[in-house]
Every structure is written in structure tokens, then in C-alpha cells.
């Protein structure tokens, strides 16, 4: 809610949010018979921190919706952005002529452990304030993550976002960004770099 309100104030737009468990209807309107329409189109920001919800988001989003996923532990966290899990949409996704990127692997592809079941019991009903109270989260980690998400959104809307991920460690005092570059995506997916490069007009 706090993140949605900040985005709404900053960009003067209506920003929808939900504090309830993720449901596919938040993004798709199912009309039956395999027909559906988009209920949301643009940027979907997930701050869910559990594998089941992320699995639902990953399985629901179609190419066209960018998914920004934010997750954190006690004093560290990561923000990832992507819009597809299909190799078909990643072919030729980098245009070196105008330095534009049309597609990136979904967060769940970039960091598969996001979909892994927890190694210890997790209280699904515990909110961030309760986690801080129970000393399971640093008092400032959520504010820091919200600022990082806002930076992603700001750069994205300005057409200046050059990262596909960022890892914050408040204990170590570090912020490590992952550039959105074809070499990095190719290594991540196990494909040749040329597969990800859009053929220039001069080469056609």
C-alpha cells in the first residue's frame, strides 16, 4: 500500500494494489472457454516473499506485462525485472542499433530459488511490521527496498533503466546491480549471444 501511494503521488496516476493473497483475476479476466482479457497491463510489482504467490504471478503474466519482483531477508534483498519466460520472445530482444531492450527473463527465471519452497516454517499471515517486531527483519529494510523499487520504476518510465536486477546488503553496505546485457542473459539461459540480438537493418 505504501509503495502504491508513493508511486501514485510521484507519477500522478491511479495505482492499484492488493494486500490480499495474489489471485490470477487481478491480472486476467477469465470469460470461460479459454477466453480472457487483460485486467492489468503495464507493470506488475510483486512484494510477496513466498514461492506460491510468485509461482502464481509467473504463470499468469503474458508477454507485455513487466514484472518487478522485490524480496528481502533480515537486512538484504533483491529487485528483479522481466517480462517473459518463453525463449521465443527473447530471440532478438536486444537492439544494439538504438540500445533498446524489448524483453527480459522473468524474475523467476533470473533467480529460480524464488520459486523454491521455504527451508523453514513461514508464517504466511505475518506482515512486515510484525516481522520487524519479532526481529525477523531490520527496521529499515522495507523502506530501503521500497526506494529501490521506486528507482526501478522511475528509470523504466524514463527509458533509462539499464539493469535487470539489483542486490542490496545493508549489513555490508553494498548495492550490486546486474546490467541488462545480452552476454549476461545468454549466460543465464545457456544460449548464444547472437540469438538475443535483433538483426540490424544494414544486415538484412
What does this 3D model show about the protein?
The chain has a single domain (2-196), classed as Rossmann fold (3-Layer(aba) Sandwich). With 204 residues, the protein is of the alpha+beta class. It is 31% helix and 22% strand. A 5-stranded mixed sheet has the order 3-4-5-8-9, covered by helices on one side. It has a two-stranded antiparallel ribbon with strand order 1-2. It has helices at residues 2-11, 51-60, 87-90, 107-110, 128-133, 141-158, 182-189, 193-196; strands at 28-32, 35-38, 43-46, 66-72, 76-82, 94-95, 100-101, 163-169, 174-179. The longest helix is centred in the C-terminal third of the chain and has 18 residues, at 141-158. It contains 8 helices and 9 strands. A hairpin with a 4-residue loop joins β8 and β9.
Q: What is the element layout, followed by pairings?
A:
Blueprint (H helix, E strand, L loop, with lengths): L1 H10 L16 E5 L2 E4 L4 E4 L4 H10 L5 E7 L3 E7 L4 H4 L3 E2 L4 E2 L5 H4 L17 H6 L7 H18 L4 E7 L4 E6 L2 H8 L3 H4 L8
Parallel strand pairs: 3-4
Antiparallel strand pairs: 1-2, 4-5, 5-8, 6-7, 8-9
Keywords:
31% helix, alpha+beta, 8 helices, Rossmann fold, five-stranded mixed sheet, two-stranded antiparallel ribbon, 204 residues
Brief summary of the model shown:
With 204 residues, the chain is an alpha+beta fold.
Number of helices: 8
Q: Mind describing the biggest β-sheet?
A: 5 strands, mixed
CATH third-tier fold name: Rossmann fold
- The count of β-strands is 9
Output the strand order for the largest sheet.
Answer: 3-4-5-8-9
Uncertain regions spanning at least 5 consecutive residues: none
Number of domains: 1
Which shape, going by the Cα principal axes? globular
Report, as a whole number of angstroms, the end-to-end distance. 48 Å
Oligomeric state of the chains? single chain
Amino acid at each position: 500500500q505504501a509503495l502504491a501511494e508513493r508511486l501514485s503521488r510521484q507519477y500522478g496516476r491511479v495505482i492499484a494494489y492488493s494486500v490480499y493473497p495474489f489471485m490470477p483475476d487481478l491480472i486476467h479476466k477469465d470469460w470461460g472457454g479459454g477466453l480472457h482479457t487483460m485486467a492489468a497491463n503495464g507493470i506488475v510489482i510483486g512484494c510477496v516473499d513466498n514461492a506460491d504467490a510468485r509461482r502464481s504471478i509467473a504463470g499468469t503474466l503474458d508477454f507485455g506485462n513487466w514484472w518487478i519482483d522485490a524480496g528481502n531477508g533480515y537486512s538484504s534483498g533483491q529487485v528483479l525485472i522481466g517480462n517473459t519466460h518463453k525463449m521465443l520472445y527473447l530471440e532478438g530482444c536486444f537492439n544494439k542499433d538504438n540500445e533498446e531492450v524489448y524483453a527480459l527473463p522473468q524474475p523467476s527465471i533470473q533467480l529460480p530459488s524464488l520459486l523454491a519452497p521455504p527451508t523453514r516454517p513461514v508464517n504466511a499471515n505475518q506482515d512486515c511490521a510484525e516481522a520487524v517486531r519479532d526481529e525477523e527483519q531490520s527496521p529499515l529494510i522495507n523502506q530501503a527496498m521500497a526506494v529501490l523499487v521506486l528507482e526501478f520504476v522511475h528509470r523504466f518510465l524514463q527509458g533509462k533503466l539499464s539493469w535487470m536486477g539489483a542486490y542490496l546488503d545493508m549489513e555490508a553496505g553494498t548495492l550490486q546491480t546486474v546490467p541488462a546485457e545480452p552476454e549476461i542473459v545468454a549466460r543465464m539461459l545457456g544460449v548464444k549471444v547472437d540469438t538475443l540480438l535483433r538483426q540490424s537493418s544494414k544486415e538484412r
